[in-house]
């Protein structure tokens, strides 16, 4: 499970399309819309077909998304009342009573938008999360850089290389505590872009209904992400080796 604040649904869609992992069908756990297709057995709205799924996820008017993906609509007929009740609880309380991965659905994800805008997503495979974060990191750095470039009247267009997945894997050790990527604290100097990485306080996991405040101030420095504008290469600079030791794995 990954709890992320700042990662967008668009990051998810872009990453899943790149790895041919965009869901074929969605079972929506949000309040039922009588004007949309409803599955008879579960009583949930459904979105069928990959093109329709793409349109649904890309529509900015669709906020507070909560859904499970599934392979075949016939599989929904096999769900028991207890399983459906578990899905209702998942969509309402943003917590699972049982595994959010259902054998009958063969779902790869359980996607929940929390009231504060954070995304709580259960990924069946860690590489799926790495892919999403890679696109999100790249997008955030590029956006922050464009803002700084605008302030200094730099007009030369620049395309950022995609954040490497193997580098994301090195950051796994921080994810269990909670990693904060401080894009507001990003610096551009000597042809390098530097983004501070911090470890969040335990209280971040208690945040559901409100935006996390004073998060950067209460977090511990751990490392820096560095991007070379000349070579277009990313690297990780560890500033607190203790946080990368095996005791945090």
Helix count equals 6
- Label the structural class: alpha+beta
What order do the SSEs take from the amino end to the carboxyl end, as H and E? Answer: EHEEHEHEEHHHEEEEE
Q: Please give the share of residues in helix.
A: 25-40%
Number of strands: 11
Could you say which overall geometry the principal axes of the C-alpha atoms support? elongated
The major beta sheet can be summarized as:
6 strands, antiparallel
Q: State the assembly state of the protein chains.
A: single chain
Strand percentage lies at: 15-25%
Rg over CA atoms: 20 Å
Largest sheet strand order: 1-6-5-4-2-3
- The end-to-end distance, rounded to whole angstroms, is 15 Å
Summed up:
The chain is α+β, with helices and mostly antiparallel strands. The chain has helices at 9-18, 50-58, 81-93, 126-151, 165-170, 172-175, and strands at 2-4, 25-28, 46-48, 66-70, 109-113, 119-123, 179-181, 187-189, 192-199, 220-228, 234-238. It has 6 helices and 11 strands.
